[in-house]
């Protein structure tokens, strides 16, 4: 530390007075070196950085434009989808109504056919029962006549078979 003070004292001993407002040669050398470094940085460092920044800015602008275009396409696709869904729902409703109408017609036709069959079967059963009743009546009529005269004879205590025979010959 003592050497440094001696040097400073030595400079002061020289007695030269320098005006700090007037630049000396060191200032011009430092200024020249600064300008060279500034030129080198301006020529070889700044253009590539500017180019990368410009490319990045262009890419961001393109991305923003692509996002906007994609949003527009999404909105258009959504509108088409909604329109298609609405059309499909209407068509499905029309088909459902048509099928219900056809189903009702088939049910009505089946009921009419079944009613016809039932009425035919009832008529057939009624005819068959009538024929059976008539046949049974025809078969049982002679025995009923004999049984009724026998019953009347027992109740009255008189033989009514002769009276019936005379009543039947009149």
UniProtKB/TrEMBL annotation:
InterPro entries found in the cross-reference section: ATP_synth_b/b'su_bac/chlpt (IPR002146), ATP_synthase_B_chain (IPR050059)
HAMAP family: ATP_synth_b_bprime
Membrane-topology descriptor: Single-pass membrane protein
Taxon lineage: Bacteria, Bacillati, Actinomycetota, Actinomycetes, Mycobacteriales
Cellular component, GO annotation: endomembrane system; plasma membrane; proton-transporting ATP synthase complex
Molecular function via GO: hydrolase activity; proton-transporting ATP synthase activity, rotational mechanism; proton-transporting ATPase activity, rotational mechanism
Known role: F(1)F(0) ATP synthase produces ATP from ADP in the presence of a proton or sodium gradient. F-type ATPases consist of two structural domains, F(1) containing the extramembraneous catalytic core and F(0) containing the membrane proton channel, linked together by a central stalk and a peripheral stalk. During catalysis, ATP synthesis in the catalytic domain of F(1) is coupled via a rotary mechanism of the central stalk subunits to proton translocation.
Protein name (Swiss-Prot/TrEMBL): ATP synthase subunit b
Protein's UniProt keywords contain Nucleotide-binding: no
Subunit structure: F-type ATPases have 2 components, F(1) - the catalytic core - and F(0) - the membrane proton channel. F(1) has five subunits: alpha(3), beta(3), gamma(1), delta(1), epsilon(1). F(0) has three main subunits: a(1), b(2) and c(10-14). The alpha and beta chains form an alternating ring which encloses part of the gamma chain. F(1) is attached to F(0) by a central stalk formed by the gamma and epsilon chains, while a peripheral stalk is formed by the delta and b chains.
Transmembrane in keyword set: yes
Similarity section: Belongs to the ATPase B chain family.
Gene name, Swiss-Prot/TrEMBL: atpF
Keywords on record: ATP synthesis, Cell membrane, CF(0), Hydrogen ion transport, Hydrolase, Ion transport, Membrane, Transmembrane, Transmembrane helix, Transport
Region (Disordered): 107-144
Transmembrane spans: 27-46
Biased composition (Polar residues): 121-141
Organism of this sequence: Mycolicibacterium chitae
Compartments in which it is found: Cell membrane; Endomembrane system
UniProt-listed Pfam families: ATP-synt_B
């Amino acid at each position: 530390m003592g050497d440094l003070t001696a040097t400073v004292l030595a400079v002061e001993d020289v007695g030269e007075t320098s005006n700090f407002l007037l630049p000396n040669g060191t200032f011009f050398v430092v200024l020249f070196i600064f300008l060279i470094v500034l030129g080198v940085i301006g020529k070889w460092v700044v253009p590539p950085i500017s180019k990368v920044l410009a490319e990045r800015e262009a890419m961001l602008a393109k991305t923003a434009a692509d996002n906007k275009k994609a949003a527009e396409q999404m909105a258009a696709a959504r509108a088409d989808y909604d329109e298609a869904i609405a059309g499909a729902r209407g068509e499905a409703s029309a088909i459902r109504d048509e099928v219900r109408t056809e189903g009702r017609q088939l049910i009505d036709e089946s009921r009419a056919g079944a009613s016809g069959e039932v009425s035919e079967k009832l008529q057939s059963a009624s005819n068959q029962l009538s024929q059976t009743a008539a046949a049974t009546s025809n078969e049982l009529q002679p025995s009923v006549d004999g049984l009724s005269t026998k019953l009347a004879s027992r109740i009255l205590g008189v033989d009514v078979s002769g009276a019936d025979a005379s009543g039947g010959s009149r």
